[in-house]
Amino acid sequence: MIQNGDGSDAGTRTRSSRTRGIDQNRMSEKYIKPSRNTAARMLDDEMIVMSVRDSRVYTLNATASAIWSAADGATPLREIVASKVVPNFEVDPDVAYQDALELVDELAQEGILLVADAPIPQEAV
Amino acid sequence: MSSLLHLMNEKAARLGIPLSAHLDVTWRCNERCVHCYLDHDDLGELTYDEIHGLLAQMAEAGVMFLTLSGGEPFLRKDLFAIIRCARELTFNVKLKSNALLIREAEAAQIRELGVEQIQISIYSHRAEVHDAITKVKGSLERTLAAIRFLKAQNLKVTIANVVMRQNRFDYPGVQALAAELGVHFTVDPTISPHINGDRSLLKLNIPHEDLRQVLHDPTIGGEAETCAPPPLASDEPLDGRPCSAGHSSCYISPYGDVYPCVQFPLPSGNIRELRFADIWNDSPQLKEVRSIRERDLPVCSSCSHITSCTRCPGLAYMEGNMRGPSTADCEKSYALTGVPSANMHLRAARTGVPVDKLFS
Fold first, then answer.
1. What does the pLDDT look like over B93-120, one tens digit per residue?
2. pTM
3. How far A62 CA sits from the closest chain B CA (Å)?
4. pLDDT, tens only, A9-24
5. How far is A114 from chain B (nearest CA, A)?
6. Any CB–CB contact under 8 A between A55 and chain B?
7. B62 touches chain A (CB under 8 A)
């Protein structure tokens, strides 16, 4: 789940987990890395992310925070889900991966996460 | 502050996490503003290496929102290196500056480094008034040029307008200037005592009738700056915290001294002697600040303004008692409502001055 709000008000939005076909996206690995235009910090069990370009603030729940924290641009998303989400949140690996794909797509659309089919270099914006 | 940020701030205060910090990287300045509450000599500023270490400790302690200020921060040759270090540690960085040293190249670098916003002081739309306050001829023109460079980089800029006797009729002009430049605008009608305790600067505060006018001016709406917003409504207002100072935010001087807030100069430890987290968690001074709830305020807890007052505990401390009233905020509550505060009644009884003449 992510919540977001801008500098004047906090419109909130909830993303719920859904299960879809598990064979999708098997063909390619995904790599993720926070955009350089973000600030982020863990506050208790949730990650606060702020876009420094438009001052929008996002809070990520525990599973999304685990994915964000491991987003180094070098580790495949499937591996992140397997090592950081599945053992800690007692969730089916394929369901967790599908949810993770939706999450990173959403964060990419918000402009705060880079998603690529190949490892992302350290200097990437 | 957005309600999401407000909720995060409440959560940080509840957990004892310093979500926000204000770091003055220097007190040196290239202006000499008549109302400034700082000394401008360099008494041994933190080095870049010390600041680098401090930022790493602050990030580990949970600080996310970092304000870099001064003095004039751009007088430090290593300011961009400091900002770069802060951004690599994923702080959200806000700058406060007079912008005299910002030109096209600096504006581009501020953008490239991912500074979220920059706040710039402007005292008047009239050069003769602004420059007389800063005591630097041509300062308004240079500052406005800098704002245009920053806007050209699509940076978020806020003009902060401190209102004092010298410029009390000019805030509408500054507001219009901000609108023309396409930047945000805040107005602050509070003059702070000097950080060394000298209260003579308070004579620059605007007369009560002018304060009333500023606070009631519908064109500035919610743009009057309050650093101590009233606490969130709760079932029991007297259980509330006076403000975030020492609860989820703190201030660090260029010499490494940690205070609850820049306006609350209660020495609580020095980062040259102790780790930041040890000061934040174990300082007796910060623990005392944190222990105070509205019900513990001997005068204010019985005041009719308790749920709406922007009482600054730092200004109260500067008056002699961190649990006491802040007279400047009593005056604001009175100017807003026409209802005297509990502190005003006490002062009237003590001095014999009629309550409606206390701020005359």
1. 999 999 999 999 999 999 999 999 999 9
2. 0.90
3. 15
4. 333 333 333 333 334 4
5. 16
6. yes
7. yes
